[in-house]
Amino acid sequence: MEFPSKLIEDAVTEVSKLPGIGKKTALRLVLHLLKRDEEQTQTLAQSLTAMRTKVKYCQRCHNLSDDDLCTICANPRRDGSIICVVEDTRDVLAVENTAQYKGLYHVLGGIISPVEGIGPSDLHIESLIHRLANNIQADEPVKEIILALSPTMEGDTTAFYLQKKLRPFNLRISTIARGIPIGGDLEYADEVTLGRSILSRVVYE
Amino acid sequence: MEFPSKLIEDAVTEVSKLPGIGKKTALRLVLHLLKRDEEQTQTLAQSLTAMRTKVKYCQRCHNLSDDDLCTICANPRRDGSIICVVEDTRDVLAVENTAQYKGLYHVLGGIISPVEGIGPSDLHIESLIHRLANNIQADEPVKEIILALSPTMEGDTTAFYLQKKLRPFNLRISTIARGIPIGGDLEYADEVTLGRSILSRVVYE
Question: What is the interface pTM, i.e. ipTM, of the complex?
Fold first, then answer.
C-alpha cells in the first residue's frame, strides 16, 4: 500500500505492530482518529505513555499496580490465608470478575515452556517460596495455595513443578476444577474433558 | 471489570474508544505494550500525535498530505486530463493499489446522505467545480471525470447530483463498471448485480 502521507504511513506502521491488527485495520483506526477531535488522540497517546512509564508491579504478588502494593494486597478485608497462583494479570481480572474469591494472588508472570525457553527461574516462583517462608511470623498465616493455571501442557508442567516445590510447607494445595463448562453440551465436549469430569465427579451431600 | 491500576484502566478506556475494539481487546493490547520495550509505546504515541497534529489535506484534491499538494497532485508524471472522484482517502488507496489508474483524484470527504444529515454543501463539490472552471487556462485540460463511488443508495444519489452539476463543462463523465467480481460465481451473484452485468455487457471486438 502506498500512502499519500509519511505521517499516516508511520502511524499505520506503529499501530499495525499491535497483535491482531493488520495494515487495513490500522489504517481504519488512524483515519478514525483523524475524523475526531485532536484531543482524543492526545489523550490516547498520553494515557499509553503514562501507563507504560509509570505502572509498577506489586512487590508482594507481582500484579500490576500504581503503588508498591497492589489494591488487592493492600486491602485488609481480603483473606490472607489463601493465595491463588496465576499466570498473568489477565487471569487475576478473570478470577476477580467471578466475585467468588476473596483471598490474595501470586502472579507468576508466565508459565514454564521449554519451547519458548521459559524455565522456572524466569517466573516469580522464588518470591512465592520466600513469601511462604516468611509465613510463620505473619498475623494471618497462609493455609492454602490454589493453582489456577490453564489446562494445557505448559500449565500442567508448571502446576507439577510448583506442587513439588511447595510440598515442604505443609499447606493445602488445590487446583481449579476441570470439567464441562456451565451451559456446555455433553454431546460436543471433547473426550479428555468429559473423561476428567467423570473421574472428578462430585458426590451429592 | 475492576482494574488493579488506574493507569491501566485509563489506557484501556482510551484504546477501547477506537472502532471495533472492546474492553477485552483493549486490555490485551495494553498488556502487550507493557511486555515490550518502553520505546515501542513512545514511538506509537508520538506517531499518533504527530499524525493528528501535522497531517494536512491537499489544497487541490483534498487527499491526505504532508504538504500543501499531495504526492499524487505534485507528481508531473500523473495524467492531469482525468480526475477520479472518490468518497475518501481509503478509496484513493484502493484505486492506487490496482496500479490501473494514472490520473488525478478528487476526494469528496463523504457522500450525500440525508439520513446522516450530509448534504452536497458538506462535501468538496464546490472545489471540484472551481477546479474545472479554471480548467480552460490549464496546460493539461481535464477531459474526463470518473465517478468511483460505492454502488449504494447514497453513492448513486451523489453520482446523480454530480452528473447534473458537471454537465455544463462538456466533459466525458464515466462511472466504474458494476458487474460480477473476478473469481465470483454466477450462481451466487445477487440478481441486481447479475441483471446489471447483462445490461452492461461488453462486446468482443
Answer: 0.78
